[in-house]
Every structure is written in structure tokens, then in C-alpha cells.
From TrEMBL:
Residue ranges, compositional bias (Low complexity): 1-16
Protein name listed in UniProt: Tat pathway signal sequence domain protein
Keyword match Membrane: yes
Region (Disordered): 1-23
UniProt source species: Bifidobacterium angulatum DSM 20098 = JCM 7096
TM region positions: 40-61, 67-92, 163-184, 238-255, 261-282, 331-352, 358-376, 440-460, 623-645, 652-670, 676-692
Record key words, sorted: Membrane, Transmembrane, Transmembrane helix
Length: 713
């Protein structure tokens, strides 16, 4: 009688132990499935947003509405969604070194092997022909040429100064034949500084008054923001950049009688700055200099020797030279990356375009390369010491690199007002992902933000300069109200009309509405402007009711409100949409061809041919997409979705500011304005290289672990 009881108790105890062991594993599997589902849901949401923008694009090209969304639009959306999701799936599977089209089970062994569309007989025949061709004279000759070209490509780009020299040679035609590229913003900044200089020298000028027209009225800036004591400098285009541009042009007028020599000087300085930024970033991503600094000799494995090679084989008296790390980029990647910057109009025209966005983009790219170095030198335990651009130990940022990081962030703050949002966002992400470099982030991110942005805020509060009008940040709301006033004015409630009356003239607002750009609605510009925004008489008390009036108007006609939102931003995410303002605009426009003194006569026909040729090529269907900024925005979003699925959180920590810049695009005044997409376009090639290296590192880690387990067994 005892044995059965003992057996029963043993079975019960054993079952309890099994339950205790399996329960945590089951819970872990459940959480893992939930996490994987959430990550894929986020990626699907990104694809749906891109597909939606593609589907509604034809509607807004014809000034239509989503109320007319039909079967053809649905077909466009479904096709775009399938393509975008397929790209994400391919990226994820390639990151795991899996085929894009799934797996097939071997009937004999039961193992899963890659499935391909090419029959096995064709693949076998191709391998035999390729092997036969390699041993022929032609094959051997081509292999030698390929190897020789690869060595020379790497040798010509293995130093920062060599990359800079390549960029100088490739971009030299831009400042020498085109001189400079600019638009109306540069003239406005010159006008601001000129009026301020006149005030400082004692010249009487009109200020606040109904019949007066000061530079602040061009944007315009509400009069309630003007201090009582006259001042003519504003933070509309960032005050520090205005002072730099305006003072240079003032000196040019003093010595030469025109702005043109100053414009050429500013363009040449920006051209040199662009070369320095791009060369430094290319050097970091292609050559991984932190590995060269710290790991010429692997002391943990002395049998591997140092990373040195003879300067020339057969001539030992010439000594040895340090070789590049094995993880540096191969020749094809170097060629593709450098050709993008040498040939793409987005980069080429930006080198001499005197407006805030290109300057911000080059500084952002410079900082992006330093972020990669911080990411790679953080001492990640899970990164392999070999086979990926990581150091096994934590390394401090060199003083020279720290100063470069500080300068890049400062120039971003000087060039664009929204830069401080980007830097604060980066600071928070950096402290979460890489606490070991916290001192770098405090002194290179937080301190310049506080000093520069805080100093500008103090100058605004003290009345030295005038703040930019808050109406600039209400572009979406303005477009929604204006479109409803234009398309369906009868739906606007009377209470909303009363609240809007002190701020806007609804009739003028409806007449000035243009779905691509919110500037006409807020009365920006100097040429025959529509006074829809009552900037002369509006008060802070009137602005308090603006949001209430906007909400009532949107509730009264939500369909038209959605139309206004989508028409204002869909082009940034619709790959088939042509840019509203492309970078060739700054090369050839009225400000250059009519309002300059002598620049308009310098290579006038060549300037027109360059701008028109670039525009024609970019308008070519499909083939012209790589010349558009939204092409890189879309692919960046898809790569980010793949990184989310792959749980590359530390990589995402320094890629997420690119997503924040996409939010800046949506709130920008214009739709598909290419200069707002420059930072993402410049960083895209480096994003691809990082994605490939991270995938290679994960595979190397897996292979190392498998070999270790095999050895242990």
C-alpha cells in the first residue's frame, strides 16, 4: 500500500517541477510573440502610411478630394503596400542571411534549404560555365583588372585628405561655373541687416505704422511681437545666420557697390564646408579610423600579428605601412557612396545654395558620422571584436573628434531654428542607449543648445531682436481653414468666423489658398501679397481663440480638412510625386537671373542648361526617382521599419532623429520641398552601409557562438 502512494507522490512532485520549469519558458515565448507582433504591426503601419500617400497622390495632382477615392486609387495603394512590405521583408530576411522567398524542406534529410526561383539545373550549369570562364585568359585578365581597380579605389580613399581631394576635383565645376545659388531668403536677410545697420548709424526709418513697410512685414511678423524701441533684426531665418549673411553682403556693397562678390564669397565658404563635412563622414564610414587608431595590434591574439603590410612587395627597404581594418568598406561600396555625392543634384547644388537647409544638412551629416563613431566605440559586450566595426572595449572620444562634434552641433543650431528640438531629442536617446559617453553628450549637445538657443531667447525677451511669428508653426491649421473657406465656405460655423475675424480675412484666405504651400495664406512675400493674415492688427488675445475656431471649422467639414492635411504633406512620402521646389530652383530663378548685378551675366546659358537638364532628368518616370528627396525619405523609413523588427535598438537610437526630421517636413509650410529632405538624403547611403554591417556582425556573432559550442561539445 505504501509503494503506490510513494509513486503517486513522486509523480506529483515531478509534474510540479516540470510545470515550474516550463511555465517561465512558456511565458517568455508568449511575451516574445507579443513583441514580435507589435514590431511587425509598426512596420506594417509605416507601409500603410506610404501606400496611402501613394494612393491619394493622383487625387491631389488634379485638385480633387478623398471623397472621390476610387478603385484605381485603391489599386495604387494595394500595389504600393505590397511593394513596400516586400522590401521590409527582404531587408529582414537578408539581415538574417535568408533568401527573400522563403524556405524549402529537403525530402531526404528534412533540413530546410533556401528556396530560389532559378532551377537547380540552371544554377549548376551557370556555376560550371563561370568556373570554366575564370580559368581562361580573358577570365584571368578580368579578375586581375578587377582586383587592381579595387586596390586602387581603396588606396585612393583610405585617408580623409584623399577623399577631400576627390570631392574637390568632382565638385570644382560647381563654384567655378555657377558661382552661387540663392533665393529670396538671402535678399531678405541682407535687407534686415541693412535696415539694422542704418538704425545703428543714426538713420531714421519707418517703424510701426499702417503705411510703413519694414523688412519684418515681408514674412510677415505680427506687430504685437515688435518691441517699442525700434529694431529690425528678426529670428525668422535664425538671427546668427542672418548676421553672418547680412554682414558679409554689407561689406561687399561697401567695397564693390553690389552684393554679388559677397554672395560668391559665401558660396565658396559653404562649398569648402561641404567638402570638409562629407569627407569627414565618408572617412568614418568607409575607413573606420577608430579601429586603425586602437587595433593595429591585437594583443589578445599575438599569433595574428600586427595589421601591417609591406609598402611595396619586393622592396623591403621601403618599410611597412599600416593596413586598413578588415571591416572597412570594399571598393564597390566606396564607388557608389562617393558617386552619389558627386552626381546627385541634391548634393551638388546644395554645396553653393545659400539658404539655411543645406548648411544644416551638411552639419547634420558631419555629426551623423561622429554619432557612428560613438556607437561603434561604446564597448558593446555583444559585438564581436572582429568582423564588425566595433571595439570590444570602451574608448573615449578623441579631443579632435569631440571638438568636431561640438562644432557640427553649433552650426546646426546657427542654421535652423528647429535644430534645438533635434539636439534635445538626440540627447535623451543618447543617455538611454549609451550612458558611458554621457560627458560627451552633455558638453557637445546640451551645453551648446543652452548657450545658443538660450542666448537667442534672452535677446528676444530683452527686445534686441524680434521673434519669428508663431503663425509659422500653424501651417497645417492654416491650410485646413483656407481649403474649407475655398471649397465649402458655407460649412464654417458663425462662431468660428467671429473668432477668426481678428486674425484672418476669410475671403482673402480662400482666394490665396494654394494646396502646395501655406505661405500665401499667411501673407508671406512682397509681390502683390494677399492680406489674409492681419499681422498689423492681430493681438495675443485674438490668437488665444484661434485653436478653438480651427477645431470648430474642422469638425464642420472633416473631409476637406483631411484633404488639406494630405495635400500639404503627401508628396514627401509619394515616390511618384514631383518636387514642388527642387534644388535646381536655387541655381536658376529670378533672384539669380534678374536681381543680381553681374552674376546673371556669368555663364548665363550654361546655368540655364544645367538647371533645365537636371529638371528634365528628374522628371523622367522611375529613372528620375533617385534624384528626388522623397525617394530617400521613403527608403529610410523602410530601413527603420526593418531595424525595429530586428530589434536593433541601439542603432535606432541614433537613427530616430531622421524620423523627427520627417515630422518637421510634415509641419513645414510647403509640400515636397526638397531642401527639407537634404539631411535624410545625405545620410541614406551611410544608413545602408550601417544596416549591412550590423547584419554582417550578427551573422559573425552567430557563427562564432556556433563554433564555440561545437568546440566545447
Amino acid at each position: 500500500m505504501i509503494k503506490p502512494a510513494t509513486t503517486r507522490n513522486n509523480r506529483t512532485t515531478t509534474s510540479r517541477n516540470i510545470d515550474r520549469q516550463t511555465r517561465p519558458r512558456t511565458q517568455h515565448n508568449a511575451f516574445a510573440r507579443i513583441g514580435a507582433t507589435a514590431r511587425w504591426a509598426l512596420a506594417v503601419a509605416a507601409c500603410l502610411w506610404l501606400a496611402w500617400c501613394t494612393a491619394v497622390g493622383p487625387l491631389y495632382w488634379n485638385d480633387s478630394s478623398i471623397a472621390n477615392f476610387g478603385a484605381l486609387n485603391a489599386l495604387f495603394g494595394i500595389l504600393a503596400f505590397a511593394i513596400y512590405l516586400f522590401i521590409v521583408v527582404v531587408l529582414v530576411r537578408k539581415a538574417h542571411h535568408q533568401p527573400a522567398l522563403g524556405w524549402a524542406a529537403d525530402r531526404a534529410t528534412g533540413e530546410r534549404t533556401p528556396r530560389t526561383l532559378i532551377p537547380r539545373s540552371w544554377r549548376t550549369a551557370w556555376r560550371k560555365r563561370a568556373a570554366t570562364f575564370r580559368i581562361t585568359k580573358t577570365g584571368i585578365w578580368l579578375q586581375r583588372i578587377s582586383a587592381c581597380c579595387g586596390r586602387w579605389i581603396v588606396r585612393c580613399t583610405d585617408k580623409r585628405w584623399k577623399i577631400a581631394l576627390v570631392l574637390v576635383i568632382g565638385w570644382l565645376w560647381v563654384p567655378t561655373t555657377l558661382l552661387a545659388a540663392f533665393g529670396a531668403d538671402l535678399r531678405s536677410q541682407a535687407r534686415e541687416f541693412s535696415w539694422a545697420w542704418n538704425q545703428w548709424t543714426g538713420l531714421k526709418q519707418p517703424y510701426i505704422g499702417f503705411f510703413s513697410f519694414a523688412p519684418m512685414d515681408i514674412y510677415p511678423t505680427a506687430h504685437y511681437l515688435w518691441p517699442d524701441s525700434p529694431t529690425y533684426l528678426t529670428d525668422q531665418h535664425n538671427i546668427l545666420l542672418t548676421l553672418w549673411y547680412g554682414s558679409t553682403l554689407a561689406v561687399s556693397r561697401y567695397f564693390t557697390g553690389s552684393n554679388d562678390w559677397g554672395i560668391v564669397l559665401l558660396a565658396a565658404i559653404q562649398w569648402l564646408f561641404a567638402i570638409g563635412c562629407i569627407a569627414a563622414t565618408l572617412h568614418r564610414f568607409l575607413n573606420l579610423p577608430w579601429l586603425a587608431r586602437n587595433e593595429y595590434v591585437d594583443f589578445a591574439h599575438p599569433e595574428r600579428g600586427g595589421r601591417f603590410a609591406p609598402t611595396r612587395l619586393g622592396r623591403p627597404e621601403r618599410g611597412m605601412r599600416a593596413t586598413l581594418p578588415s571591416q572597412s568598406a570594399h571598393a564597390p561600396a566606396r564607388v557608389i557612396t562617393i558617386l552619389f555625392f558627386l552626381l546627385c543634384p541634391l548634393a551638388v547644388f546644395s554645396t553653393i545654395s545659400l539658404t539655411k537647409s543645406p548648411l544644416f544638412a551638411f552639419a547634420f551629416t558631419w555629426a551623423f558620422g561622429i554619432w557612428y563613431e560613438l556607437y561603434a566605440t561604446s564597448g558593446d559586450r555583444h559585438a564581436p571584436a572582429h568582423g564588425a566595426p566595433f571595439l570590444a572595449r570602451f574608448h573615449r572620444l578623441p579631443a579632435r573628434t569631440f571638438l568636431a562634434f561640438l562644432a557640427a552641433n553649433a552650426i546646426m543650431l546657427i542654421s535652423a531654428k528647429y535644430a534645438w528640438y533635434v539636439l534635445l531629442f538626440e540627447f535623451v536617446l543618447a543617455l538611454i542607449a549609451d550612458r558611458r559617453h554621457w560627458k560627451v553628450y552633455v558638453f557637445a549637445l546640451l551645453v551648446p543648445t543652452v548657450l545658443i538657443h538660450g542666448g537667442i531667447s534672452m535677446a528676444i525677451n530683452s527686445g534686441i531682436i524680434i521673434s519669428g511669428d508663431p503663425i509659422e508653426s500653424h501651417g497645417v491649421q492654416l491650410q485646413q481653414i483656407a481649403r474649407i473657406a475655398n471649397k465649402a465656405p458655407e460649412t464654417i460655423p458663425e462662431s468660428a468666423r467671429r473668432k477668426l475675424a481678428p486674425v484672418f480675412n476669410l475671403d482673402q484666405m480662400a482666394e490665396a489658398y494654394f494646396q502646395q504651400d501655406a505661405d500665401p495664406v499667411k501673407s508671406s512675400g512682397i509681390q502683390s501679397k494677399k492680406v489674409s493674415y492681419r499681422w498689423r492688427s492681430v493681438t495675443p488675445e485674438s490668437m488665444k481663440h484661434f485653436n478653438e475656431a480651427w477645431l470648430e471649422t474642422v469638425r464642420a467639414n472633416p473631409v476637406v480638412a483631411v484633404d488639406a492635411l494630405m495635400a500639404k504633406c503627401f508628396g514627401y512620402f509619394d515616390i511618384a510625386d514631383l518636387p514642388y521646389v527642387s534644388m535646381d530652383y536655387y541655381v536658376y530663378n529670378d533672384q539669380v537671373t534678374s536681381n543680381s548685378t553681374w552674376i546673371k551675366y556669368y555663364n548665363a546659358n550654361w546655368r540655364a542648361w544645367v538647371a533645365n537638364t537636371s529638371r528634365q532628368i528628374s522628371r523622367t518616370p522611375v529613372l528620375g526617382w533617385p534624384l528626388h528627396g522623397n525617394f530617400y525619405v521613403i527608403l529610410t523609413l523602410l530601413i527603420g521599419a526593418a531595424e525595429v523588427i530586428l530589434r536593433r535598438w541601439r542603432t535606432l537610437a541614433w537613427h530616430l532623429p531622421l524620423l523627427l526630421l520627417m515630422g518637421v517636413m510634415i509641419t513645414a509650410p510647403a509640400n515636397n520641398f526638397e531642401r527639407h529632405m537634404l539631411p535624410i538624403a545625405f545620410c541614406f547611403v551611410f544608413l545602408c552601409l550601417t544596416f549591412w554591417r550590423d547584419s554582417h556582425a550578427r551573422v559573425s556573432t552567430a557563427n562564432t557562438g556556433a563554433r564555440a559550442c561545437t568546440t566545447k561539445d
